[in-house]
Amino acid sequence: MTANRDTPTRAAAPNDVQQRRVAVSRSAAATLEGVNAQHIQVKDYSFFYGPTQVLFDLTMDFPERHVTALIGPSGCGKSTLLRNINRMNDLIDGISHQGDIQIDGSSIYDPYLEVISLRKRIGMVFQKSNPFPKSIYENIVYSLRVAGRNKKSELDETVETSLKAAALWDEVKDRLQESAFSLSGGQMQRLCIARAIANRPEILLMDEPCSALDPIATGKIEDLIHDLKKEYTIIIVTHNMQQAARVSDKTAFLYMGQLIEYDETEKIFMKPSEAQTEAYVSGRFG
Amino acid sequence: MEGTEGWVDISVNGTPSKPLPERFVVAPATLWFDRFMNHFIKVGGLSIIVAVSLIFFFILLQILPLFRGARVQEYGSLPVPPGDYVLMGTDEWSELPFLLDTAGSLHFVDTVEPDGPHDRGHFVRAPAFLEEVEAAVVRYNEYQARLAYGTVDGRFAIVDVKYRPTFPDRGGREVLVNLEETPLLSIGREGVALDMIAYGDSGARKLAAAVQQVDGRYELHVVSLAQRRTLLGPGELRVDQAYDLTDYLDGEPAHVVIPSDADALLIAMQDGRVRYLHYDGRVFTERQVFQPFADLANSRIASMDFLLGDVSIVMTSVSGENRMYSIYRDPDKDMRIWGHTKTFASMDHAAAFYSAGMRNKSFLIGSGRFASLRYATTKQIRWEDELPFDIRLALLGPRYDRLLFLDAEDTLHFYDLRDPHPQAGWKTYFAKIQYEGQAEASYAWQSTGGRDDFERKLSLVPLIIGTLKGTFYAMFFALPIALMAALYTSQFLKPEIKRFVKPTMEIMASLPSVVLGFLAALWLAPIVSNAVPSVILAVVGVTVSAYTFGYVWGHLPPHIRLRLKPGYEFIVFVPVMCLAAYACWTLGPVMERTFFLVTDPSTGLQVADFRLWFPTVTGLGFEQRNAFVVGFVMGFAVIPIIFTISEDALSNVPDAFRSGSLALGASRWQTAVNIVLPTASAGIFSAIMIGLGRAVGETMIVVMATGNTPVTELNPFTGMRTLSANIAVELPEAPYLGTLYRTLFLGAFVLFLMTFIVNTVAEILRQHLREKYRAVE
Ligand SMILES: Nc1ncnc2c1ncn2[C@@H]1O[C@H](COP(=O)(O)OP(=O)(O)OP(=O)(O)O)[C@@H](O)[C@H]1O
Ligand SMILES: [Mg+2]
Fold first, then answer.
1. Any chain A CB within 8 A of the CB of B662?
2. Rounded CA separation B125/B717 (Å)
3. What is A3-29+40-132+203-281's CATH topology?
4. What angle (nearest 5°) sits at the alpha carbon of residue B686, between those of residues B683 and B692?
5. What number of C-beta contacts closer than 8 Å exist between A and B?
6. What's the pLDDT tens digit per position in B198-248?
7. Where in the sequence is the domain holding B541, given as residue range(s)?
8. pLDDT in tens, A226-274
9. What is the complex's ipTM, to 2 decimals?
10. Domain ranges in chain A?
11. Environment class of residue B52 by beta-carbon count within 10 Å: exposed (0-12), middle (13-18) or buried (19+)?
12. Does the distance separating the beta carbons of B658 and A86 come in below 8 Å?
């Protein structure tokens, strides 16, 4: 709406997207052939914080070993949806829901289901990085320790593989016993990612993993998401359109708690069917 | 400052800058208020620091005199008529001392008005019987101001020096004196001069002993005196029984003494052996022979005198060793015997003079020019000095305020003695001391006794132990309950319920401790003491049932368990706990009947009573008002504090940590223990320390719910006396600025130090924890 909108960076965006997209769709095609299962299914899902409805009748599927991006303006309910998939919202008072979310065909609200084992299947990277006040090493092995796995060799190996996967190994391999708080913001973010994948979950929920990261760190994390996709079903929330375009196979656009459009990323960014989507991805509102 | 109103002219280096637009100008009121509050807060903070330091200095000021030695200063001297003086005595105020010459006459010296109008500067009195017969030996008992005269013809008489203060019209005080003498009574061989005399008088029983030399052989004769009471007052004093104890003399006796209780006779031989003969009113039996200086080359006893109370004898050897023997009940022989209790600093020579204090356990001893003032209980030298004259006679003033010396040139020297706290010292407060009548050294507190000659016991150790004991048992109950409750409330309980649990606990914190103490003493203590097995069973049973419940609950199939929303488990849990408590309570008596059986010594029957069983099995005491009850009730005073603060600390742990942990598949318990607890550890630590501070200083509950016995054991079934309770209990009895008064302040200071050290260490640890678990912002 102001001259700001037409700054050179913004203008350059579509090109960038296109370049990246080519690479994305190639790799996506390869994996899509083998696996086509709908890993997470959201069915007529509505969610309330007390009397306030935040999510309205969402129905969407997240395919296995794909990256799905959730985009939408601030406060539209992206985090809320994400946090419901591993039932982290249970901690909040006075919540209620309608409809269902299923993972591999079974409801996450099944009374026979142990929430703890549900959460073990799902790794989560929070919007605000939250390393524990422990050493780097202990942060990574936490999920193993709470599962009662304390074998030194296994822990050491997990630390190394997780940190390597999160592209942090080289930076911290000599200071694993130092406090996690001694890391920089971007390193902490990657530590949280390493921590989330340490127990090798099936699903990875990432809530703005690159907020407050510089372009280099962002690039590393995006590369990481690329690699992780081979094993994990990833849902990523982002405000960065280029990032959504770069890393995701599918993109869902939420607006005020409603699913406006959900499709292949390429389609959302190139030919969105909804006017609102187009307006949002082209930066005209939000 | 010209220009429009409200504009501020900011100038840098004198060059006036552009005036500031009004919207950037800070209102003067805001600035003024800001500055004012800055200073106000500074002043407030400083005055608190000043107030605390002032309290500290006040306490310090109160206790410092305790550690000061005696100050002794000459304040006058008087020439006395030359004479062969052998002993010295004085009135209570040391105003009218007398010198006794070899003939037995008393030369009084008026020190107040040496040249006064009453012609009293010096005057001589002598007992009437001296006109009839010459005195051979005189012995003086300072405490009773009583002279025992032995005559050259084998008789003796007792003369009381009766000082009487009068308050004449011209003001001031005048001490008058007269002598009250008994008739001459015979002892031992008639017509033979007495070499030594000793006399003891307890009122009901009177004993006199005399040593005579008959044909070069020493004989010891003792008589008991009787005085029939008549309607017209005390009747005539006469000899009741006479004993010839010569058989006990195997050589030349050196000293013979009789304590004022007149129940014993101590004979020291020239070779240094002391025979202790006990007198039961009819016969003398030898109980003990001991040799105080057996280890020395010359074991002869040069001097041997009683200390105040006549249960200790201070002796010196010829070489100047100074030792004390006291009488105490020997646990093995089950008999009162004498034992070596103290060794004082040695002197260069045997004592030539000795004078025991009449207010405390001090004594003045020395020889030649050397005089030393010592305190028996602590073995401490209060003062000693080489005086500028040869001391012939010395006397410690009855009020412990004067030292009197008669030098070789017939001058009486008066010294002012300022030593308000002779007993005080590190040893008194913190070291084991063998008090009179005790078989071994101990830490003891007993500040008052029934008699004037009572030896005060002022060890702070039992009080410190009592404080630690009370604190320990209070924390023993409070810590687990408060911390677990805080963890449960903050991490597991639903917020709706938490909303009224917390204020309830806070109300508990405001319960006056007097009420808690009252409940503990009058209601809880009897119940607990009647049902100790039930209580112990309940403590164990409830804990075990809680863990069992948790285990079983965790292993229930989810569809049963999840019927209750997480956070509402207490609906099942509380009844289970109540049931367990009830079961334990009813099972208690059963347990008592099975395990806690003792044989009643009087009937020979087996009785089930823990109160009797515990002392017989462990040898420790059992009291109704005990540390267990106090700990329990004090726990209730401490729980709300620890609970509230640690609950706050736990609730303040950022939710991000909890979510992070839960998202990684940790259970609520794992999250609470692994993440929340360590992160809140600094706050919890503070909570514990504040609780500890409360428990250490808690007074009312301890005063009311214990017997306030200063014990040094950690047995949960006896009481204790804490430093704070001690102050509360004793302060009303403590004379202003007296030793006890200052000792109570010392107790307060120790209490202050204890909390100070604990808090400082805690603060350092807390800072460390806070640094370690600091959350990034
Ligand atoms: N704990 C809560 N209690 C009540 N309302 C909440 C709570 N958390 C979020 N909301 C509300 O739910 C709505 C959606 O919030 P959510 O955090 O999901 O937004 P978001 O899409 O993640 O936004 P952002 O991009 O700013 O992170 C917002 O209106 C928010 O105010
Ligand atoms: Mg969000």
1. yes
2. 64
3. Rossmann fold (3.40.50)
4. 145
5. 85
6. 999 988 899 999 999 988 899 999 999 988 777 777 778 889 999 999 999
7. 461-776
8. 888 888 899 999 999 999 999 999 999 999 999 999 999 999 999 999 9
9. 0.85
10. 3-29+40-132+203-281
11. exposed
12. no
